[in-house]
Every structure is written in C-alpha cells, then in structure tokens.
Amino acid sequence: MNNPIFNTARIFLQNKYHFPTPLELFKHLITNSSYFQTLSLKNDSNDELLYKLIFIAGFHERRNCGSIVKEFSQNCLIQIRDRIEDMSLDIPTLIQAFLSMSNVLLDDEKIVSTILKQLKDQEDQITLKQFHSIQHCLYKLGRQNNYWSSKACDAMTNNLTTIIIQDYVQYLHIASNLYQFGLFQEEHLIKLLDILYYKLGKQQKHIYSSKFTFQFAQMMFNIYPEIINQPLNQLSCKPHTPFEMYFQFLKRDYQICRQILQRKNLGVTIDYFENENFPFLLRLRQDSISRTQTLLETEIIEILNKLQLKFLKFQKVLIYDVDFKVMDNYAINCNGPLHFISTLDGKIKQKSFNTMMQYRHLKALETPNVIDFDFFDWKQEDSMEFKISKIKTLLNLI
Fold first, then answer.
1. Would you state the pLDDT for residue 244?
2. Which residues contact 370 (CB under 8 A, 6 or more apart)?
3. Is 147 exposed, middle or buried (0-12, 13-18, 19+ CB in 10 A)?
C-alpha cells in the first residue's frame, strides 16, 4: 500500500512484534486479543494506539475478519475518544484516522467532530485528494455534512486539469448513489456529468483499472437503472430525463467496463489498457484480498445441505460476487458487521450506503430473487430448528 501514514504504522508494529511481512503481523494481532484489551490500550502511547487502529482497520485482509477487526478497532477508538481533544495531529494522520473509522464503519460524534474541527483549522493546506478522502469517509459513515460536501464538490469541479479520472469516477459513483437516496441535488449531478464528459473526451490514455470498471458500472446503474436488465448490445436509456444527453457518450465506456467485469473471476483483478504504449492490453493479476468463508456462511451451508437444496457458493450476479446462488432462482448475500455503520457502544445505525446500493442493483434484476441475510438475524446460540425455519421462510419453502 503506497500510503505513508499506513506504512509508518505497519513498520512500527512489524519492528515491535518482529514479523517480516504485514500478513504475518496482521494474523498475529487479530489472534491475540490481549493487545486490544482496555488495560493494554490504556498503557499504549498515542502513537502506538493510532498505529494499531490504522493497521488493523487499513490492512486489506480485514474484510475476512470483520467481527474481530471491528471489535478491536472499537476498543482502540474508545481509548482515542478519551484522548482525542488533547491530540494535535497533522492533516495526513487526521485523514488516515478518519479512513480507519470509515473502513470498519464505526462512528462516534466526538471523534468525528474533533477530526473535522482540526481539519478545518488547517483547511488552507488540504489537497484535492484529501478533500475527496474526507467526503468519502463521511459517505461511508452515512453522514451528511454540507460544509465538507460543498468543499469536496468545489475541489472536484474547480481542478479539471489535476484531478485523476479514477478519483473523479469514484466521487461520481458516490454522488449518484446519494442522488438515489435524495441526498444529492440533481443540478449538481448534472454539473459533475458535464465535467466527466470533458474529462473522458480529453483523456488520451484510457486505463480501465479494476476499481474504475466496477465503480463506473455502479455509477451507470445509479443514473440509468433501466440498463441493469438490458443486453450490452441493446442499450437505451429512458427518454426525456435530465441525464439522457450523456448516455450515448457514456455507453461505450460502460460496455467496456461490463465486458471486463464479466471476465473477472473470484480472486482475480483485471486491468485493461487502450493507449499508444499498450494498445488493447488485458492484464490479469491475483487479487490482493483472499476470500474466506465466514461462520455465518458455514452455518447456512450446513442448513442448505440439510434441506438438500442445490446451491453454489461465491457466484457472480450482475457485477457482484454473491455468497450463494440457491436453486438457480435465489441469490443470498450474508451481511456481516462490516456492512453496518455502528457506534462505539455497539448500536447499529444503518446499513452502509454501498451495501444498500448493491442490494438495489441486484433487486432490479428480473431474476434471481435477492435475499439480504444480516448477521444479527439469528444468534449463534439459537437452535438449528429455528435457523432452518428462518432459511425455509426466506426461500418460500414454508
């Protein structure tokens, strides 16, 4: 990860615990809860406390250890909350701490308010990319902040020559999703699309990175939901909408993105290049994030086997990797703790905007039927009979 603050945290912890690789360090930390117990954290310096949070909440394997990482991050943040007003942090560290919170979807009014206040005090030094990061954190935590949203929007629209197209599309995919929730104004979205038209038209090097293709497709689903069920060679948008004029321009990039995503298998990252140096080059790489089976998924597999139902694991539906495809006509997604924004006292506030966006896109499909199964829908100690009944109800088998 090319992130100076994260790398500082990683190097400090690797040196302290004597692990040669970040993965070994991560596995060591998440299997030793004593490092994240209250007494241990209280004895940590401010730097070490932040480093622990930044590393475990920023390392890519966190997605496979959602419950543990969220719990350990929560313990770190409780201690940080007690000290935050006495911490004087520079902009990169403030933003990295904010990113750590948003990565594990943990929200706290005191910490967020203090971070934003310290950032505002240094606002004249904040870069374009940092404005984008602040807005991204607010979005992931489900927060609406007119001041910082306006600053991010101004930064995006007033720096046409310096903004990277990948960052711009990420911002647009956020804005278009918020628009679907009535949280982003139509005229602002139109202005952003005007700029995208300019940026894509001026761009000489067309690089379709894995992240770009995914977010571009999501953006298109948000703006033109009618295309979700349309074949790629028969695309059309609804007439007489505010976004109709951009459709023909965006269509080719969308078609390319969808074709790349259709080639993508689990565990593989695909980048596509269209430029003079690498004309029509498709690059396949092993995904840095491995996919492991959660306890909830293991329980569901056991139940599906007991019910003698045909199912497949980790299947692609639309552009998403769903956890289960059952009887060919049901798609089940298991939503663990990292799909929900919660407070430091453990209260769940809401599903993340990204989780709700994925569900909306999948739900728009004519088939299969989509089921969101949340980690709190049953407790581990609930009887097997109760769990079987729950699954049978969801699959309309009762």
1. 96
2. 317, 322, 330, 331, 333, 359, 362, 363
3. exposed
> Which class is 295-394 in CATH?
alpha beta
CA neighbor of 117 nearest in space, from 145, 140, 77: 145
Residue 1 pLDDT > 70, yes or no?
no
Domain spans in the chain, listed from the N-terminal domain onward: 1-161, 164-290, 295-394
| C-alpha closest to that of 15 among 23, 2, 25, 6 | 25
**Helices vs. strands in the chain: H and E counts, helices first:** 16, 10
* Residue 151 pLDDT > 80: yes
Q: Which tokens in the block code for residue 9?
A: 């945290």
Helix axes 165-180, 186-202, angle to 10 degrees: 160
Mean pLDDT of 190-202: 83
**Percentage of residues in the chain with pLDDT exceeding 70?**
97
- Taking a C-beta distance cutoff of 8 angstroms, is the pair 235, 255 a contact? yes
- Give Cα separations from 393 to 333, 368, 371, 389 (angstroms): 16, 17, 11, 6
Residues near 159 by beta carbon (within 8 Å), at least 6 away in sequence: 128
Q: Starting from the edge strand earliest in sequence, which strands make up the sheet with 348-351, in order?
A: 106-107, 340-343, 348-351
Find the helix or strand (DSSP H, E) in which 162 lies: none
pLDDT for position 345: 94
What number of other Cβ atoms are within 10 A of residue 311's Cβ?
A: 18
Query: Residue 142 and residue 353: Cα distance in Å, rounded?
Result: 7
What is the DSSP code string of 177-226?
HHHHTT-S-HHHHHHHHHHHHHHHHH-SSEEE-HHHHHHHHHHHHHH-GG
Lowest mean pLDDT of 6-20, 205-219, 273-287, name the range: 273-287
Is the pLDDT at 384 greater than 90? The verdict is yes
Tell me, what's the pLDDT at 65? 85
CA 398 to chain centre: 35
Res 36 pLDDT > 90? yes
Residue 396 region, left (φ>0) first, then alpha (ψ -120 to 50), else beta? left
CB 336 within 8 A of CB 70: no
Q: How far apart are CA 91 and CA 347, in angstroms?
A: 29
Would you state the pLDDT for residue 107? 98
Q: Can you read off the two tokens belonging to residue 142?
A: 């489900």
